[in-house]
């Protein structure tokens, strides 16, 4: 893309565009913050992490993450504690809730966007930095994870800090030695965020960039001695304490979770089955997860390949190369790994956002600007249509008045940016409209479907209904057919109730409760209830239900127990 001097934007145009982009970023994060508590913590991963943070908060044990597994409180040796520490701290400040459980991810998401903006501003321009922040904040998976109780945001934040610090160090800023030390600090924090994988991802990205650009000499300038000391001082104490408290932790964590997990399906996972995907699935995940901005990068890659011969004679943009290598490193690393989740590609998103922003700005300043404006106009029309669909959905599945007013205000801002961009042919305003539209649509859909989602993927709704039973107030809850981590969170952390836990699961556990007939509430998924022997079911009294769950007692809690609706094949006692 050739930039013509006649097409360079005026300073006033840049200022107005930058203001619009900044408003779009703030709107996205305001919407995410306001809706952190809309959905229940979902089973099992998110609820498990919320539960682990709660155990840290209530016990004061900041060394060993713990959670209930098969009826027993067990150490969680699968991940380091940085995210759990932040979750426990949020509980201390805000109280125990879904909102507090997810607050640290929102905070980390904001930090990553801020670092991305600073990176773009330092190496290109303020407009590139802000646009990169918008692209990152509005990319599908990043937006979702910015409001989820999950560990990957901490990993992404430490990787981003390491990559930014190294770049600032190489650029020779006045305080470059401190940026070098900050680089090692980030590596130490990464080891507390998700383990040595953070060092591996950063190392692969930097080695790839150094090999492409032949900048090997910068390695000699790094403060290796003081930096290594900082990294060890940050990470090592917890690993030593964790091994002392839980002998064998290091072997399982380093060998099983990091090496064997990469190499084989049956890697000895203590906490569930592995997530097996086809080889190369990381690339498909990357393409889907970075929407709606992926097509822009794909087009850039195709054009770069077609013009590789002429481009070879031009000076290489070192930092665009840096951003691209950073962005694709997670996908490269996990190409031959089958035990992966889509969240594993997130540490590269800041690099992809920087690359996308550079491409967008250069495209808008090139002779092919009209083509991009057409694409952006089509995209804004699509996002506007999606928002109208979402508002229609809210008429069918209403949200709270406060949520509706908030969504309407954010959507009005999005529509205004789209209209102004269409009228003036302003690519930055159109990009802002697209950036706001997609996250807002996702949020509105999830809010409208929150009742169904909360009941299907969590125990929040059924636990709340059981807690509201005056005739069985204070009765403990039993989940005899499985481990739902969300039940531990909602019963004990949110409702101050009690769960009776058993090491055995299934029909034998139900039969034992029927024979002993204690004052307990037994909670089942409907499909599990249907699987029970009719003789066992006759010994239970229905107390309440939701669409996905049913609750029973072995004693009749009231002369007139609530009527619970069943299909013909799941009748309660006669």
From TrEMBL:
<feature type="transmembrane region" description="Helical">
    <location>
        <begin position="130"/>
        <end position="146"/>
    </location>
</feature>
<keyword id="KW-0808">Transferase</keyword>
<dbReference type="GO" id="GO:0009103">
    <property type="term" value="P:lipopolysaccharide biosynthetic process"/>
</dbReference>
<dbReference type="GO" id="GO:0005886">
    <property type="term" value="C:plasma membrane"/>
</dbReference>
<feature type="transmembrane region" description="Helical">
    <location>
        <begin position="280"/>
        <end position="298"/>
    </location>
</feature>
<dbReference type="Pfam" id="PF13231">
    <property type="entry name" value="PMT_2"/>
</dbReference>
<feature type="transmembrane region" description="Helical">
    <location>
        <begin position="21"/>
        <end position="41"/>
    </location>
</feature>
<keyword id="KW-0812">Transmembrane</keyword>
<feature type="region of interest" description="Disordered">
    <location>
        <begin position="554"/>
        <end position="574"/>
    </location>
</feature>
<feature type="transmembrane region" description="Helical">
    <location>
        <begin position="404"/>
        <end position="421"/>
    </location>
</feature>
<feature type="transmembrane region" description="Helical">
    <location>
        <begin position="375"/>
        <end position="398"/>
    </location>
</feature>
<keyword id="KW-0472">Membrane</keyword>
<dbReference type="InterPro" id="IPR050297">
    <property type="entry name" value="LipidA_mod_glycosyltrf_83"/>
</dbReference>
<feature type="transmembrane region" description="Helical">
    <location>
        <begin position="342"/>
        <end position="363"/>
    </location>
</feature>
<feature type="transmembrane region" description="Helical">
    <location>
        <begin position="428"/>
        <end position="446"/>
    </location>
</feature>
<feature type="transmembrane region" description="Helical">
    <location>
        <begin position="222"/>
        <end position="241"/>
    </location>
</feature>
<feature type="domain" description="Glycosyltransferase RgtA/B/C/D-like">
    <location>
        <begin position="79"/>
        <end position="239"/>
    </location>
</feature>
<feature type="transmembrane region" description="Helical">
    <location>
        <begin position="183"/>
        <end position="210"/>
    </location>
</feature>
<keyword id="KW-0328">Glycosyltransferase</keyword>
<dbReference type="GO" id="GO:0010041">
    <property type="term" value="P:response to iron(III) ion"/>
</dbReference>
<keyword id="KW-1003">Cell membrane</keyword>
<protein>
    <submittedName>
        <fullName>Undecaprenyl phosphate-alpha-4-amino-4-deoxy-L-arabinose arabinosyl transferase</fullName>
        <ecNumber>2.4.2.43</ecNumber>
    </submittedName>
</protein>
<feature type="transmembrane region" description="Helical">
    <location>
        <begin position="153"/>
        <end position="171"/>
    </location>
</feature>
<keyword id="KW-1133">Transmembrane helix</keyword>
<dbReference type="GO" id="GO:0103015">
    <property type="term" value="F:4-amino-4-deoxy-L-arabinose transferase activity"/>
</dbReference>
<feature type="transmembrane region" description="Helical">
    <location>
        <begin position="106"/>
        <end position="124"/>
    </location>
</feature>
<feature type="transmembrane region" description="Helical">
    <location>
        <begin position="319"/>
        <end position="336"/>
    </location>
</feature>
<dbReference type="InterPro" id="IPR038731">
    <property type="entry name" value="RgtA/B/C-like"/>
</dbReference>
């Amino acid at each position: 893309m050739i930039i013509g001097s006649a097409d360079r934007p005026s300073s006033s145009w840049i200022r107005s565009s930058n203001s619009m982009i900044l408003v779009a970023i703030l709107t996205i994060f305001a919407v995410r913050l306001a809706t952190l508590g809309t959905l229940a913590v979902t089973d099992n991963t998110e609820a498990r992490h919320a539960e682990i943070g709660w155990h840290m908060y209530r016990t004061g044990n900041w060394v060993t993450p713990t959670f209930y597994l098969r009826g027993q409180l067990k150490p969680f040796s699968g991940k380091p504690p940085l995210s759990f520490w932040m979750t426990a701290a949020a509980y201390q400040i805000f109280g125990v809730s879904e909102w507090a459980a997810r607050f640290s991810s929102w905070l980390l998401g904001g930090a990553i966007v801020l670092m991305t903006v600073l990176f773009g501003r330092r190496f290109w321009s303020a407009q590139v930095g802000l646009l990169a922040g918008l692209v990152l904040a509005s990319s599908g998976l990043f937006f979702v994870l910015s409001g989820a109780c999950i560990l990957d945001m901490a990993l992404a934040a430490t990787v981003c800090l390491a990559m930014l610090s190294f770049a600032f160090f190489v650029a020779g800023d006045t305080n470059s030695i401190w940026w070098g030390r900050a680089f090692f600090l980030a590596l130490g924090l990464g080891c507390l965020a998700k383990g040595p994988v953070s060092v591996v991802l950063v190392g692969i990205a930097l080695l790839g960039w150094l090999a492409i650009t032949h900048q090997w000499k910068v390695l000699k300038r790094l403060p290796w001695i003081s930096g290594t000391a900082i990294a060890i001082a940050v990470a090592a104490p917890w690993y030593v304490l964790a091994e002392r408290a839980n002998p064998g932790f290091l072997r399982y964590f380093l060998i099983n979770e990091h090496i064997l997990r990469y190499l084989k399906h049956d890697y000895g996972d203590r906490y569930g089955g592995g997530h097996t995907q086809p080889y190369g699935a990381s690339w498909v995940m990357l393409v889907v997860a970075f929407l709606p901005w992926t097509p822009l990068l794909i087009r850039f890659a195709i054009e770069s390949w077609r013009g590789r011969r002429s481009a070879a004679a031009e000076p290489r943009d070192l930092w665009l190369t840096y951003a691209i290598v950073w962005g694709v490193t997670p996908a490269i690393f996990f190409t031959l790994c089958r035990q992966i989740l889509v969240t594993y590609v997130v540490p590269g998103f800041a690099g992809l956002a920087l690359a996308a922003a550079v491409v967008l700005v250069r495209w808008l300043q090139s002779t092919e600007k009209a083509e991009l404006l057409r694409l952006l106009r089509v995209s804004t029309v699509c996002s506007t249509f999606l928002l109208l669909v979402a508002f229609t959905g809210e008429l069918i599945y209403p949200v709270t008045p406060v949520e509706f007013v908030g969504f309407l205000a954010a959507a009005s801002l999005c529509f205004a940016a789209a209209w102004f961009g269409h009228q003036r042919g302003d690519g930055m305003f159109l990009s802002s409209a697209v950036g706001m539209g997609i996250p807002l649509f996702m949020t509105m859909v999830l809010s409208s479907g929150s009742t169904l989602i909360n009941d299907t993927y969590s125990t929040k709704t059924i636990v709340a209904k059981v807690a509201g039973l005056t005739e069985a107030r204070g009765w403990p809850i039993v989940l005899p057919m499985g481990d739902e981590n969300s039940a531990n969170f909602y019963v004990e952390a949110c409702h101050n109730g009690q769960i009776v836990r058993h090491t055995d699961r299934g029909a034998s556990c139900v039969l034992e409760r029927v024979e002993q007939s204690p004052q307990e509430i037994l909670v089942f998924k409907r499909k599990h209830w249907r699987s029970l022997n009719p003789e066992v079911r006759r010994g239970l009294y229905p107390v309440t239900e939701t669409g996905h769950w049913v609750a029973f007692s072995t004693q009749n809690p009231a002369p007139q127990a609530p009527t619970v609706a069943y299909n013909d094949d799941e009748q309660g006692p006669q």
